[in-house]
Design brief:
The structure is a homodimer of 196-residue chains.
Chain A: E1 4-9, H1 14-30, E2 33-38, H2 41-48, H3 57-74, H4 89-101, H5 106-118, H6 127-136, H7 141-148, H8 151-167, E3 174-177, E4 180-183, H9 188-195
Parallel strand pairs in A: 1-2
Antiparallel strand pairs in A: 1-3, 3-4
């Protein structure tokens, strides 16, 4: 029986960024396949009544420290994005569209966008900046833009987000090992245990 | 130089209960003194705009699983309280009053109340039930009740809660090692690292 787990992510979440950096290691250490599940975190917040921890000022201040501590533990770069919060609708449509049409391009896309937002502090609310980031990562910005306007892609992202809500997702990142759900980049060790 | 850390707790928080069970071990492993800081979580929520994670149904369902997984990892009993949420004003006044007047009675009080709520599922919103729990743990319920009506105790709990907010506290449990703040029973390992 082949092992696998689901990883629900949105590029606007710094915690999902940290988790993203750890997925190759987790897959290697457990021998499990990662099923990447792009979804729209804003849609999940709306459907569940949850909200970004960043909306509570005291929690937001603490979270920046906490994310930096975890980044140091993982040995990955992290810097809070000065343009936060980021509207990720176009990026998540692009992620899902790539997964549908050119699946081998999903990981390079995620790497480039996560790095732009959570390492380099780029303003991904600005389409010109997005185009520069994509071009530098070897993508054709016009082709990616076309994906974000594709009715089938739009519909699939809505459906993926709705399906995530129905499965119990309320935040990002979220993992599933079978029916067991784990929320948070700080639960990777529990995901690992569940896979072993 | 003697090491110490602050532990902010409210008996109504299941995460603070789990942390409470780990404080003796943390103190032993680090050689640090625990400064127990009773405060009113409801007051902190009001002041910071934060709210209980239990207020989001999907998050609440997940949290019960997550708390049970942590309890299993710690090797301590845990059961969600059917009478949650609990108004903890009287219990937190009693905790602070005991700390002021009979400091050696704080830990037995916390042990008894945490166990009643987060292991035995007792209804601590019912004064008669509270009296039974306290009596069984060797307390004089009338004396404890008197503490909860003591104007100095009332004032001190307000001041302690306000001071916690000013220090950056937005939830429970919260730890401080010097100026470094850590939120959550799942951050005990970071507290330990900061103490070492």
């Amino acid at each position: 029986m082949s092992k696998a787990f689901d990883f629900y992510f949105d590029v606007g979440s710094p915690a999902a960024y940290l988790a993203w950096t750890q997925m190759p290691r987790l897959a290697r250490e457990t021998g499990a396949t990662v099923h990447y599940r792009p979804f729209l975190l804003g849609g999940v917040f709306q459907a569940t009544g949850n909200r970004s921890p960043m909306e509570v000022p005291a929690k937001s201040r603490w979270m920046r420290d906490d994310l930096a501590r975890h980044a140091a533990r993982y040995g990955v770069p992290y810097r809070h994005n000065p343009h936060f919060p980021i509207n990720t609708l176009a990026q998540m449509r692009a992620a899902l569209g790539l997964q549908m049409r050119q699946p081998e391009r999903l990981l390079p896309f995620g790497d480039a966008v996560y790095r732009a937002i959570w390492v380099d502090g780029r303003n991904m609310n600005d389409p010109a900046e997005v185009a520069r980031v994509l071009q530098k990562a070897g993508f054709d910005p016009q082709a990616v833009l076309a994906l974000t306007q594709d009715p089938e892609v739009k519909e699939r992202l809505k459906a993926a987000t709705q399906a995530a809500v129905e499965r119990g997702v309320f935040g990002a990142p979220t993992f599933f090992v079978g029916d067991q759900m784990f929320w948070g980049q700080d639960r990777i060790d529990f995901v690992k245990e569940a896979l072993q």
